Amino acid sequence: MSAAVENTYGRAGERSLALPVATIWRNGLFAAGTWFLTAALSYGLPDVISWGATELFAIIMLAGAGIFLALSVTVHRLGGFGRTLVHYGPWFIVLGLWLAVWEVLTAKLGWLPKPFFSPPQGLLHVYLTDWDRLLICIAYTGRLWGLGFFSGILVGFAGGVALGWSKRFAYWGMPLLKLIGPVPASAWIPCTFFIFPSTFHASIFLVALASGIPVAILTAAGVSQVNRSFYDVARTLGADNRFLIFKVAIPASLPNVFVGIFMGLYYSFAVLVVAEMLGAKFGLGWYLQFNTAYSAYANVYAALIIMALICAGLVRLLFVARDRLLGWQKGIL
Predict the structure, then answer these.
(1) Which residue ranges run through the membrane (predicted)?
(2) Using an 8 Å Cβ cutoff, are 117 and 106 in contact?
(3) CA 283 to CA 271: how far, in whole Å?
(4) Residue 317 falls inside a structural domain
(5) Rounded to whole angstroms, how far apart are CA atoms 15 and 101?
(6) 117 and 297 Cβ atoms separated by less than 8 Å
(7) What pLDDT score was predicted for residue 22?
(8) Phi and psi for 118 in degrees, rounded to 5?
(9) Which of 117, 231, 260, 277 is deepest in the core (most CB within 10 A)?
(10) Looking at residue 328, what is its pLDDT?
């Protein structure tokens, strides 16, 4: 009886030792320390000049430090989201250190002086006081970019398929594309003023041109490089040209198409600022130009951060769309 009890407790003890023990996320603790350091520097040291929102910035950093401190012991219970946080742990540490250095060099020591540089609370003050104008500018920029980008990639995709499929079309079209492609889209501004009835339509054309050319070139390359054996097999099964284009050529060239779309996205944002300077009354590009003229560089940096975040978000969405559409190629390429 006692031997059986000992064996039972012994097995239970062995099982208890085998249970996973919660570990501490060390990068979370380090991130909490760097964010707390930034909060202490921001609140504890005096500003060289008044920037506004200093106390609020310190509170936000302190709240971030508290969140990271709590996550350091609970992140392993959050599943996929927790694994993502652990993956970016070093970035959270570096971000806290960067904010601390930025805060000291600008607001506390003044080594990077106003108006050319702004501390973090200066940008936060812009978001708090000029949020309504920024939202209007984001909406105007989104309208202009959406019309230009999507029209550009649609025309570029259709033209690229035609260039890659038809030798006759490529004979006339490819030299023109190679001639226009290297020219920056902003160099066509004088022509757009003459051709289009308004600056808004001219701006749409510039964004479409910047985004459509790389899509056209890479789509044409992808269609022309499709393995000829795919066409032979499809023709053997009775496929016509329509089937070969839409069911063979286009799906096989999608990796090249997405590379062109990624390139077009970056080019379109680079041209967007220039396009919105053509008489636009609102938009992030207009906002940058307007505040640069008045040396309001804190507003300029705030708008640049918004543009960077929007572009990064769109790139992320493109990656998701690419992975879904090209999921059938996993294990093949």
Answers:
(1) 24-45, 51-73, 85-105, 144-164, 176-196, 202-223, 244-263, 269-288, 300-319
(2) yes
(3) 13
(4) yes
(5) 49
(6) yes
(7) 53
(8) -135, 140
(9) 260
(10) 66
173: how many CB neighbours lie within 10 A of its CB? 17
**Count of domains observed in the chain:** 2
Q: Which of 225, 216, 206 is nearest to 156 (CA)?
A: 216
pLDDT of residue 12: 43
Token code pair at residue 19: 């249970």
**Structure-token match 């609970």, residue found:** 74
Residues 6+ apart with CB under 8 A from 167: none
Instruction: For the chain, state the CA radius of gyration.
Output: 28
C-alpha distances out from residue 100 to 28, 33, 91, 106, 318, Å: 17, 11, 14, 10, 33
- The Cβ-side half-sphere exposure at 287, using a 13 Å CA radius, reads 27
Q: Three-state SS for 279?
A: coil
50: DSSP letter: -
DSSP type of residue 106? I
Q: Say which residue the tokens 């000291």 belong to.
A: 104
Do 213 and 303 sit in the same domain of this protein?
yes
The CATH number given to whatever domain includes residue 263 is 1.10.3720.10
Instruction: Say if 1 falls within a structural domain.
Output: no
pLDDT averaged per 10 residues in sequence order, the chain, 333 residues: 44 40 83 95 89 90 95 90 92 96 92 88 93 93 93 94 89 87 82 83 90 93 86 83 86 90 91 78 87 90 93 92 78 52
Query: Both tokens of residue 190?
Result: 């004088």
CB 253, CB 268: distance < 8 Å: no
CA distance 301 to 194: 34
25: phi then psi, degrees, rounded to nearest 5: -80, 100
pTM given for the model: 0.80
